[in-house]
Amino acid sequence: MGIIFTKLWRLFNHQEHKVIIVGLDNAGKTTILYQFSMNEVVHTSPTIGSNVEEIVVKNTHFLMWDIGGQESLRSSWNTYYTNTEFVIVVVDSTDRERISVTREELYRMLAHEDLKKAGLLVFANKQDVKGCMTVAEISQSLQLTSVKDHQWHIQACCALTGEGLCQGLEWMMSRLRVR
Ligand code: G3D
Ligand code: MG
Fold first, then answer.
1. Which atom of ligand 1 is nearest to the CA of 161?
2. Which residues neighbour 25 within 8 Å (Cβ) at sequence distance 6 or greater?
3. How many domains does the chain have?
4. Residue 6 maps to a domain
5. CB 39: neighbour CB atoms within 10 A?
6. Which GO BP terms sit in this record (predicted)?
7. What is the CA(42)–ligand 1 centre distance, in A?
8. In this structure, is residue 158 part of a structural domain?
9. Any idea what the CATH number is for the domain that residue 111 is in?
10. Residues with beta carbon inside 6 Å of ligand 1?
């Protein structure tokens, strides 16, 4: 009886899973958010503050916060951390100069108490640009294999066409299923 009740509760309880989309300015965060929510390319302007959208995939609701990535805004990222289940880090794969800045921000985030249980999805965005960093290069620069206390996944994508974005969502869905 208890198990049936739990299953029914899960079925009808449209619980929202909180997701934050972070990364440096110009990485493609807002483009990704609007690909998820509208399936079309929008003309973005630098995000001041945040954008939020509810994304529904196969009856699973994600509340996705796209947080501005300019240097002046990064110190306020932690105000969004409470109850976050997934952190999506968007990397501009053409930006070799600033990948080390992303790494620093990443480890600062992962060490935060409120993100202890959050899963980490890294989008290696702008894969359409010739000569960009590969997933392997980005994994290495971010030292992802040293991340032991968070579930993580890296996914190549192109936010302009949407390629790779569904695979990222699928990974998040798969993590929800095993919990
Ligand atoms: P941000 O929200 O992380 O700051 P935006 O980034 O979503 O505003 O995107 C920054 C710029 O990168 C935009 O170009 C956007 O079109 C572009 N961009 C996003 N994703 C991709 C991608 O996969 N490939 C390529 N080639 N460009 C991408 P503009 O010119 O509008 O500033
Ligand atoms: Mg933006």
1. 23
2. 46, 68, 69, 70, 71
3. 1
4. no
5. 9
6. protein localization to Golgi membrane
7. 10
8. yes
9. 3.40.50.300
10. 23, 25-31, 44, 46-47, 69, 90, 125-126, 128-129, 158-160
On whether residue 9 sits in a domain, the answer given is no
Task: Going residue by residue through the chain, which has 179 residues, state the pLDDT in tens, using 9 for 90 and above.
Answer: 566 666 556 555 567 899 999 999 999 999 999 999 875 455 666 766 788 888 888 888 899 999 987 888 888 888 999 999 999 999 999 999 999 999 999 999 999 999 999 999 999 999 999 999 999 999 999 999 999 999 999 999 999 999 999 999 999 999 997 76
Domain that holds residue 120: 15-178
70 is catalytic: yes
The distance in angstroms from the start CA to the end CA of the chain is 21
Pair of tokens at residue 136: 């392997």
